[in-house]
Amino acid sequence: MCGVLDVVERRALRAVAAQFFVNGFIYASFVPRLPEIRDRIGVDLAGIGVLLTVGGLAGFASSVLVGRLVTRFGTRRLLMGAGVALSLSLPVMGFATTPAVFLVGAAALGASDVIVDVAMNVQGSRLSEKRHTPVMNRLHALWSVGTVLGGLLASWLAGQDVPLEAHLLTVGLAFTALVLLLGRLLLANDDPLVEQVDVKAPGSPPTSRRRVAIVFGLLGFAAIMPEMGTSDWVSFRLTDDLGLAAGQAGLGFVAFTTGMVVGRFSGDTAQLRWGRERVSDVSLGLAVVGIITLAVVPAFPAVLAGAALSGLGISVLFPLLYDDAARAGGSNAGALGAMTAGSRVAVLVLPFAVGGLASTSVVGVGGAMAAVSLPAIAIIFVLQRRFR
């Protein structure tokens, strides 16, 4: 079943890998500067949470339609079109001086990001299936590398008082051109390269599509909570809870994504050596320890260490889920759409929940992060034990 990629497939794998990097860089270009954007458009923590939640509605709507879009247009065309929209959403947010304009950019980013996310994971999973050693963790590691470099650049530019407009406009235009170039190298055909892996155990009755969708939807919902609950809000933990400057606060995001990079580059090898179940259980434990550390200990080094440890623990969750969903859903990306829909529901809930809790004087940002992340990790643990 597994073999060696031919020339076209190797070229497509390099293009998919580059797209993962681009996606991470785009995401990290605006997240570390969210405190500045919040101040510029004149809202408080609860306000930015509401705006991100409302903007996420576009992502949820996109996740409901993405399976049909993949079937009709194919992942290659979707990656190019949605990739351009994703890149150009950055300058919209960068030039925003009112909540309404920021909301337009956030909605464009949410809708296009879902499509790019599913399309590049379908292509990556197809290529990974044909290799002896899987590559999904490493593809997601490149996404994390993009977030580290994008976050470092954003943090440095914030410390140098470089205007948001210049920063996000430059990144948006550069990646628009790159996405169009990469699109020509992707797989033109979305048919599986090898036979799909069945989602049922030998001898068991056929697994219904509805049950598969429910399981992946729940896992997608739970998995996004600790990831975005840490990456999107650790900067606010440092500014609002500890009173640090924007340049220092951005390093919390960098620490988290650095942990993600380390975990994802080593994830494929770890799974081959110790198995998926052990790696998953240990990773969830690391995430719990990291989140508690960054949320409870009121010290800059402790927050950075906790963010890095939680990133290491969370790193393998989504690569495994994406690969399983891509195989279960077949060429129409049905299970991927369900998982993405679940994650987008979480995207809607999370900013509102964290922002609302964090705005209270009792809980603070750190307590709010823990309140949404730790129960989600428990859900993942229970679901994985139940459906392994």
Question: Which properties best describe this structure?
Answer:
globular; mainly alpha; 15 helices; about 80% helix; about 400 residues
- Total strands: the figure is 0
Radius of gyration from CA coordinates: 20 Å
General form: globular
Mean pLDDT over all positions: 85
Q: For this entry, what is the oligomeric state of its chains?
A: single chain
Q: Which H/E pattern describes the elements?
A: HHHHHHHHHHHHHHH
Biggest β-sheet description: none
In whole angstroms, how far apart are the ends?
23 Å
Report the total helices: 15
Give the low-pLDDT segments.
193-206
Helix content range of the residues, please?
A: over 70%
Strand content: under 5%
Structural class designation? mainly alpha
